[in-house]
Amino acid sequence: MFRLREARPISASARMLVECPLGSSFDFVGHGFFHNYTRWSPQVVELEPLSEGPVRQGAKARQVTLDRGVRTESTFEIVRFGPPQVLGIKGISEPFTTLYEFEEAMGGTQIAFSFEVEEKDPFMLPFGALFRAALQEGAQRTVENIKQLLESQHAGAASPERLAQFVYVASLDLQEPLRKIEAFSELLDNAIASSNKKDMAYARNAMRSCALSARKLVDDLLTYSSTILGEQRMEPLDVREEIEATLQELSAPIAETEAQVNVSAPPARIMADRSQLACLLQNIISNAIKYRKPNQAPQIDIVGAVASAGTLNLTITDHGVGFREDFAQTVFEPFKKFDSNIEYAGTGIELAICKSIADRHGWGISVKARPGEGAAFSFSIPLLARDVVKAPSPARLYS
Fold first, then answer.
1. Backbone angles phi, psi at 285, to 5 degrees
2. Could you tell me if 247 and 220 are in contact, meaning their C-beta atoms sit under 8 angstroms apart?
């Protein structure tokens, strides 16, 4: 017969050197925690911030984990947030603590991860060694996943082979929905075996959602590769007409969200690939609709002005949730998502596609943003010489 002893915490830890600067490492893990957590912890199938604003001490969140077919829901709070050295988390509904520590080392970052959980069931105490082994394996896997994600992202940012980097990072992100499908399939098997109709429906719907996410990711991969390597069919296009055509394509989400779109742009012509220009406009305007302020209709301004050098300066302003100014330096990289804690559909590739299209055409592209005030994406596009005009067409409101 097993002899029961008093419950005590079970802990595990792991550390690893990552070839990525300290600031970038903490930005990904700390500031980007609500966006990136599920990427290095694939057993977390749902993550919902419960506090408004950015990641900070006192922020709370809800998570659902799926491990070996067992679904667990819990809430937690960020109890330590000290950029760029430490991120600490403590369970609210479950007794656990997690600590991420960062230290500059050898031109990179030494990342230490530790996890501690209390034994709750006294009848499981004799199996503590097994739990510790499982926790230690999980801690090691966590730092390995973070290292892989950070180094691939950092190496890609410095590499001229943008497409090769994108494919590699895409393969990593594609693993997330595939892992979830595998995890939910185990839940579905258990639900079928126990005739649990509620879990059957939950697993079925979750697997369908993951499959759709994977399909969207692959579609965006194909779009991105075509903007880099695909053939361009350049032709004279009227900017105003192309904007109106794009708004017509987006009429359903515009009507659904009651978006107000104000357009003031000259009827000037540019040389462009029609499908790529349409893709660029659709991505920017779709993001403007998605990243609106909670419980408010999107307010979008599209303004074109002709500069003295025969260049059209086109700016799309969304007046939405916005993002930090420093994020503007990396927002056009693949899989970079806005640092809002509001959950939106998307793969994080849309703005990388826009950057690739602008680069292929030789256009300038930039963004200015502030949290809570929105973002303004600007493009500098050469006009056909004979079509240079000074006065824009009268403004038109679309809704």
1. -70, -40
2. no
Collapsing DSSP states into helix, strand and coil, what is residue 204? helix
Q: CB of 287 within 8 A of CB of 259? A: no
3-state secondary structure of 174: helix
Helix (H) or strand (E) holding 18: strand 9-18
Instruction: Tell the CATH topology of 1-158.
Output: Alpha-D-Glucose-1,6-Bisphosphate; Chain A, domain 4 (3.30.530)
Structure tokens at 159: 């590499």
**CATH number for the domain whose boundaries are 234-398:** 3.30.565.10
Higher per-residue confidence, 210 vs 304 = 304
Beta bridge partners of 382: 311
Cα Rg for the chain, rounded, in angstroms? Answer: 24
Cα 258 to Cα 44, 230, 253, 292, 334: the distances in Å are: 34, 36, 8, 11, 30
In a 3-state reduction of DSSP, which class is residue 122?
Answer: helix
Report residue 306: phi and psi, to 5°: -95, 125
Secondary element (H or E) of residue 90: strand 86-91
Which of 167, 184, 157 minimizes the C-alpha distance to 64? 184
Q: Is 351 helix (H, G, I), strand (E, B) or coil?
A: helix
| Separation of first and last alpha carbons in the chain | 73
Summarize pLDDT for 93-147 with one digit per residue, the tens: 999 999 999 999 887 899 999 999 876 555 445 555 666 788 898 899 899 989 8
Amino acid at 88: G
How many CB atoms within 10 Å of residue 313? 14
Instruction: Please state the separation of Cα 253 from the chain's center in Å.
Output: 21
| pTM over cut 0.85 | no
Neighbours of 56 (CB within 10 A): 12
- In the beta sheet, which residues pair with residue 317? 301, 376
CA angle, 304 then 305 then 309, to 5°: 135
pLDDT tens for 254-305 read 999 999 999 998 888 888 889 899 999 999 999 899 888 888 899 999 999 8
Nearest 5°: the CA angle 259, 271, 386 is 105
Q: Is the dihedral of CA 197, 198, 199, 205 positive or negative?
A: positive
CB 95 within 8 A of CB 119: no
- Residue that is written with structure tokens 């992202």 in the block: 153
